[in-house]
Specification:
The protein has 245 residues and is α/β, with parallel strands linked by helices. It is 42% helix and 19% strand. The protein has 11 helices and 8 strands. An 8-stranded mixed β-sheet has the order 3-4-2-5-1-6-7-8, sandwiched between helices. It binds adenosine-5'-triphosphate and magnesium ion.
């Protein structure tokens, strides 16, 4: 049977000017922090911003935003939540709360298709997608269902993060998917060169290094504080460049 959802998804996203997928391959390098802080910064600049948490098994955007996502209102689709002014937000946490969403690959693809098919974003300047770690079903489905999505790759300067980021960049390039650039996070003085070199060899823009910021933990759950952190100050030019501003 033909799945009608890909066509429906294209319609749902037809008023979204740009989809920016924050991705890394490696876990724990700061994707969700970049996705949430980036969305808040762009919304603060007056853009119409959506944030979609696609890390079904490790959903954390709502924790960073400090909201308990309710079940979305239904009106010709599911309306995104609005956890901060100008920010529309959809997450699996609306449906599973803090229960574990253990799923096999096929169920992950189904959940992704359902969310994209039912969420009524309306007109957006940018839809920021918080991707899960790894290169798997969600990565492949996004590439297939949202081929215009621009990938924003985050890595730390550690050799393990670099090797995984190199593999992801190889996949993105090999699949001819657009890449906004490579951003370094949790910079230590020794890490920067490896990231800049990786960007050159992968032929993607190097967006710079974000500092280790001890204030992030205390700002977690407080959108107003997150946008005032040193991390946010360093990240703003990167995210603005990534959305073509
Ligand atoms: N620049 C930074 N300085 C200090 N701590 C940071 C920085 N960036 C991220 N962190 C912290 O590192 C932890 C992991 O960050 P985050 O959850 O954003 O990573 P992730 O890549 O989304 O992880 P996952 O792959 O599990 O989804 C969080 O506790 C976050 O506050
Ligand atoms: Mg995350």
């Amino acid at each position: 049977m033909i799945d009608p959802r890909p066509a429906g998804i294209a319609l749902r996203l037809s008023e979204v000017r740009r989809v920016l997928a924050i991705t890394s391959g490696k876990g724990g390098v700061g994707k969700s922090t970049c996705a949430v802080v980036g969305s808040l910064l762009l919304a603060r600049r007056g853009l119409a911003v959506g944030l979609l948490d696609l890390d079904f098994q490790g959903a954390s955007c709502h924790t960073l935003l400090g909201c308990t996502p309710g079940v979305p209102v239904e009106d010709r689709g599911l309306l995104p939540l609005e956890p901060a002014p100008g920010l529309r937000f959809a997450t699996i946490a609306s449906f599973v709360g803090e229960r574990p969403a253990a799923m096999r690959g096929a169920a992950l693809s189904e959940a992704l298709r359902e969310m994209l098919a039912v969420t009524r974003w309306g007109p957006l300047d940018v839809l920021v997608v918080d991707m899960p770690p790894g290169i798997h079903d969600i990565t492949l489905e996004i590439a297939r269902l949202v081929p215009g999505a621009v990938h924003f790759v985050v890595a730390t300067g550690s050799r393990v993060a670099l090797t995984v980021a190199a593999r992801l960049l190889q996949y993105l390039r090999g699949s001819r998917l657009p890449v906004a650039g490579l951003a370094g996070n949790m910079g230590l003085r020794t890490g920067d060169a490896g990231l800049a070199d990786l960007a050159v060899s992968a032929e993607v823009p190097y967006l710079g290094m974000l500092p280790v910021d001890a204030s992030l933990e205390a700002s977690t759950g407080h959108p107003g504080r997150l946008v005032l952190t040193p991390f946010a100050r360093s990240f703003e030019p990167m995210i603005v460049r990534a959305v073509g501003g």
